[in-house]
Design brief:
By secondary structure, this protein is mostly helical. 71% of the residues lie in helices and 0% in strands. Helix 12 crosses helix 14.
């Protein structure tokens, strides 16, 4: 409760008064540290936990990502995938885990991120992980930002359900990779859904940026 209002001091006080914290209480404290930008304390607590679940791992990975420590988010994800709990299938990455690490890969300007992103995608395929709307959208955004447009389009075409964020991701990917006309064609496909258009910031983007360029 305290962590939601940024009162980290009180959150720590309440946690310290718990003699034997359960994993839910540990995870709540991890989330509190992450939301308040104290990733040093989050990591210290994470390492001291007697047991971790997917929420524990994801809270810290997402905390790194949200606080701009993208390389650390990717590093911890790779550590997670090598952990015995994951290898033995006691713990499995969830939607939030994938979205956080793919977002980190998409926004990290370093060599090797394409390979890492493809490895994550490959793991999902091999393990038959269901591609939710948000995982699919994260993949599209990732491939678009690293210049692998063909993969972005392939993921988009394989998705049965698409939301506003999905349209935004594929249109932005096309536009940012020099495919302005295709971006406009894709935009036209959105016209049948008024709700999508009204919620899409791409409407203004296309009108101001793409149209004058054609």
């Amino acid at each position: 409760m305290y962590s939601q209002f940024g009162d980290l001091l009180n959150a720590c006080k309440v946690f310290d008064e718990i003699s034997h914290p359960c994993i839910v209480e540990y995870n709540a404290m991890l989330d509190a540290y992450a939301k308040n930008g104290d990733m040093g304390s989050a990591c210290f607590l994470f390492k001291s936990m007697p047991k971790r679940d997917v929420v524990s791992w994801t809270s810290v990975i997402n905390g790194f990502a949200k606080n701009g420590l993208l390389g650390e988010a990717i590093k911890l994800f790779r550590e997670m995938m090598l952990h015995d709990d994951v290898k033995c299938c006691f713990v499995k990455p969830n939607e939030a885990t994938y979205v956080s690490v793919l977002s980190s890969c998409a926004n990290l300007d370093e060599r090797g991120v394409l390979c890492i992103g493809k490895q994550i995608h490959g793991y999902k395929v091999r393990n038959e992980v269901f591609v939710t709307v948000f995982i699919g959208t994260a993949l599209i955004d990732f491939y678009g930002k690293v210049g692998c447009l063909s993969n972005a389009i392939r993921v988009y075409n394989q998705m049965v359900v698409k939301k506003v964020c999905t349209w935004n991701a594929i249109i932005s990917s096309l536009a940012n990779n020099g495919r302005e006309e295709q971006a406009l064609d894709m935009f036209k496909k959105m016209k049948g859904d008024v709700c999508v258009l009204m919620r899409s910031p791409l409407l203004l983007y296309l009108l101001l940026v793409l149209v004058p360029s054609l």
